[in-house]
Write a structure and sequence with these properties.
The complex is a heterodimer of chains A (180) and B (192). Chain A is mainly alpha-helical and 180 residues long. Helices cover 80% and strands 0% of the residues of chain A. The chains are: A mainly alpha (180), B mainly alpha (192).
């Protein structure tokens, strides 16, 4: 029981600081989440982390609920609740405060500067996320090929995301069954 | 401007249910688009300009964009309680589903085929992230500075493995300050 409590405290320590580092969408922080969950705390292997990422992507709602799933895997329901509150809570207060202050018109120049200034940082962080996930990905060149084809399909078509994930899964299962 | 407003604003329960439904029926991103269709066009709870202001703010501020946007819309419609109801509607039901999926897959991992399937799904999901990275890079200002910031951020996170909290606080502040000064200079230069 003490162990669970310790893990919950550690989960809060991982996700609460990342709350304010979440810029340009939840994808940006995943490289750092992986570093802390796999390399620092050794809660799971790199391959298990990629699997967790895949399961989170099959679920509905915000992609950042990956934190909830990691919390559950690390410390059960208490961990799920802790990680969710830690990641979503701090910025919720911040946004509420700003919504309250900027009820009428957001301060245009600051909003523009924030967006334009944080976007390149977010781009670098999302690229790092892709790099880290690719490194942990099992399935060799077949899997990397699926990632590249999936990127092109997402950019060029309006393919359904669940269909895309199911197609990737089916292909790798087929490869594993026929070419062991 | 001409969007007809409903007679009474939605109750906090309405907000919770509506945000839950949008959350539970959205997969793999695109949530802000869904919210715009649902709350601006279909239910007509807020007008488009207010929505787009909130969207810009949600993307500019730190935090998960859709959570930020839910708080913004909920606050405008029902104050503090509305913000709380909308936020919980967006997060809690989907969080419950993700834990159920986790339970399901914890049972499925005893079959070797599950591992191959998850690797394939992960590969396709990485494609979603890479597509998002490409879109974000395409939307950078066509100047050297933003690209240099992107490359340095990538190297600091992926190679040096620095904590992103410090990268965002340090690099983000410098980058925002540079953009702020540029906007101010442009406003003056343009006679504005």
């Amino acid at each position: 029981m003490n162990d669970v409590l310790e893990r919950c405290v550690a989960l809060a320590g991982v996700f609460a600081p990342l709350s304010i580092a979440t810029i340009g969408g939840g994808q940006a922080i995943i490289a750092d989440v992986q570093r802390q969950v796999v390399d620092v705390h050794h809660w799971m292997t790199a391959a298990q982390f990629v699997n967790t990422f895949a399961i989170a992507r099959m679920a509905p709602g915000p992609g950042s609920l990956l934190a909830t799933l990691i919390g559950w895997q690390v410390a059960g329901i208490g961990g799920a609740v802790t990680a969710t509150i830690a990641l979503f809570g701090p910025t919720a207060f911040l946004v509420y405060g700003v919504a309250h202050l900027w009820r009428r018109h957001p301060e245009a120049r600051w909003a523009l500067a924030l967006e334009a200034g944080l976007r390149p940082v977010a781009a670098g962080m999302i690229l790092a996320t892709v790099y880290v996930l690719m490194r942990g990905l099992d399935g060799g060149w077949w899997a990397r090929g699926v990632a590249v084809v999936s990127t092109v399909l997402v950019l060029r078509t309006r393919i359904n995301v669940l269909l895309l994930l199911a197609a990737g899964a089916t292909l790798l299962v087929a490869v594993a069954s026929f070419a062991p | 401007m001409n969007t007809p407003q409903p007679a009474a604003p939605p109750s906090t329960l309405d907000l919770f249910v509506a945000f839950s439904l949008v959350g539970l029926t959205s997969f793999g991103g695109g949530l802000s688009g869904r919210m715009m269709v649902e709350f601006v066009q279909r239910r007509r709870w807020i007008d488009e300009e207010a929505f787009l202001n909130g969207l810009a703010l949600s993307q500019a501020l730190p935090g998960v964009n859709v959570a930020n946007l839910s708080i913004w819309i909920g606050y405008r419609l029902r104050g503090l309680r509305g913000a709380f109801a909308s936020f919980c509607g967006m997060i809690v039901p989907s969080a419950a589903v993700i834990v159920l999926l986790g339970v399901l897959f914890a049972h499925l991992t005893q079959f070797p085929v599950t591992h191959a399937a998850l690797a394939g799904a992960a590969a396709a999901a990485i494609g979603l992230s890479l597509a998002m990275a490409v879109t974000t890079v395409q939307r950078l200002r066509r100047r050297a500075f933003p690209y240099v910031v992107t490359v340095l951020t990538f190297l600091a996170v992926a190679w040096l493995q620095w904590s992103i909290v410090w990268i965002v606080l340090g690099g983000g502040c410098i980058s925002v300050a540079v953009e702020y000064l540029r906007l101010r200079r442009e406003a003056r230069g343009g006679g504005g």
